[in-house]
Amino acid sequence: NRRDGLRLLPVQIGYPTPAEKVFLPMEKSVCGQVFQTGKPLYIGDVREIPFYHEGASEVRSELAVPVRVGDRVIGVLNVESREVNAFDEEDIAFYTAIAGQLGVALENARLYREERRRRQEAETLYRAVQALTTTLDLQEVLGRILTELRQVVPYDSASVQLLEEGVLKIIDGRGFPDLDALPGFVIDPRKEDNPNARVLESRAPVILEDAPATYEAFHPPPHADIGIRAWMGVPLLFGDRVIGMLTLDKREPGFYTEEHARLAMAFAAQAAIAIENARLYRRLERQSAQLAQAVKELQDLNRLRNQLVQNVSHELRTPLTLIQGYTELLLNEGLGQLEPAQRRALKTMEEYIRTLSHLIYNLTALRTFPRETLALMPVSIVEIVGQLLEEEKQLARSAGVSFNTDLPDDLPPVLGDRERLDLVFHHLIDNAIKFSPNGGDVHIRAWADEEWVYISVKDEGIGIAPEHLDRIFERFYQIDGSTTRRFGGMGVGLALVWEIVEAHGGTVEVESEPGKGSNFTVRLPQAKEVPS
Questions:
Q1: Which of 121, 139, 313, 435 meets the CB 3.0–4.6 Å disulfide criterion with 461?
Q2: Contact 461, 479 (CB under 8 A)
Q3: 38 neighbors 46 (Cβ within 8 angstroms)
Q4: Which residues lie below 8 Å from residue 303, measured CB to CB, with a gap of 6+?
Q5: Residue 127 contacts by C-beta under 8 Å, 6 or more apart in sequence?
């Protein structure tokens, strides 16, 4: 001990006083001077020097040589004799050599002891961390932290404190009189008389040799009840965040060392990870439950919606058929001659009946399509689109829209269900007409490569905002769902387009920009083989 003096190791021969009780002052002893100077010192007659420390009354001469490890003096080898001038130069050389070997042996022993201690610490820390990481239950993790911490660093009492909204909340404790009252106890680190603030601010361990002498916060219960003297606070760090801290207390003043702090920090780093993993798992569990509930509600809504669609389409079909029949009867003057105004009114009715019939057909197709089998055969896309353009000619004319087509006659056939593909291109052409301005053009092109046939339908209409592009093919999705929307529809047509094309092994892509129109491109596989 360089500060207070030398204490002899309990390895001695020929002395009456036990070595562990012998204390040699650094300045006023032969061994102390040798330790300080690093040079051998020989005293021929110890009665002639005032600073001789009497080990045995009959000693007359003394020889002390330094024990070194490299350039560092770690102790002193001291020999004494009952004879005056008992030692000579050969003895000094002999004991100096012995001291050199002793230094090597002591250092090897120290290194071995240190290595064994480090290995035991690592094994203890590993077992403690393993115990923390075998569960993702937050309460169980918090409960295990202090149990495992005791295996790494000794304590008489300890606590886990988590940082929440600027204050520390004690989550768990050990060694306190009233443990049940401890969880939930709040510590405000912003108060001046508080060592916890130093831990949080420095993000490093803080050691107090005598906590009550340093902070009044340790005077009242529960600290005073258990006689806390030494205290150590260790931060719980996760990434760049302080999520809380651990506190360890001992009744022995000055108990905790930097080595204890190093071990506690290593443990705290793993404890913080275990806490955050458990917190994340709890959040994921909560979110998973919320998502499961949301999915169930959506499934219920979807089921109710499908049931409503089925009921509405079924209930409307019969009366609409009757209305359509009587309208045709009246237009054919089967019930008498019509005035021009009456005929115009009936024509308007007929147009709206046709629109409503088409809507009911789409609803029915949407409901039954996934369960129906496609009747695949080689189909000419040019023929389907050409026929549709002929049928839509009157609608386009009344909307002030012109068709611009590029449909090669030698376009390869596709393998498809004609009725379903007719529905696909009917919706795309109908939408292009509906969204085009008066005087606009609808561009329809078709081309092919070695594997696929492509058909694009492009309008010059209002376009689609980017935030809607990923959803326009969803069932019943409407870009403008308000009651005052400009364009009609129930969000069914594009959903049918997507599902039918996908069932054919094809794809639908859309390019659009608000104010610049939309371009839908359908890709379908060529009919290289006719299915049997």
A1: 435
A2: no
A3: no
A4: none
A5: 148, 151
The per-residue pLDDT for range 447-477, each reduced to its tens digit, is 999 999 999 999 998 899 888 888 888 877 7
DSSP 38-89: -S-EEES-GGG-TT---SSTT--EEEEEEEEETTEEEEEEEEEESSTT---H
Find all residues with CB under 8 Å of 165, minimum gap 6, and list them.
none
Quote the number of domains for the chain: 3
- Is residue 431 within 8 A of residue 447, CB to CB? The reply is no
Strand extents, DSSP E, 288-409: 377-379, 402-406
- The whole-number pLDDT of residue 370 equals 57
Whether residue 116 is found in the same domain as residue 139: no
Both tokens of residue 7?
A: 């204490």
Tokens of 94: 């002999």
Which helix (H) or strand (E) segment holds residue 457: the answer is strand 452-458
Task: Supply the CATH number for residue 471's domain.
Answer: 3.30.565.10
Residue 314 three-state SS: helix
Type of residue at 212: P
Question: Which segments of the chain have a pLDDT < 70?
Answer: 1-22, 55-56, 179, 181, 192, 222-224, 309-310, 312-314, 352, 355, 358-372, 480-491, 529-532
User: What is the C-alpha to C-alpha distance for residues 190 and 175, in angstroms, rounded to an integer?
Assistant: 26
CB contact at 8 A, 381 and 411: yes
Q: How high is the pLDDT of residue 344?
A: 84
Host domain of residue 213 = 133-275
Contact 256, 155 (CB under 8 A): no
In this structure, what token pair is assigned to residue 274? 């275990």
Do 456 and 519 lie in one domain? The reply is: yes
Residue 40 falls inside a structural domain:
yes
310, with CB counted inside 10 A (0-12, 13-18, 19+), is middle
Inter-residue contact 468 to 479 (CB < 8 Å): yes
Six token digits for residue 190: 């912003």
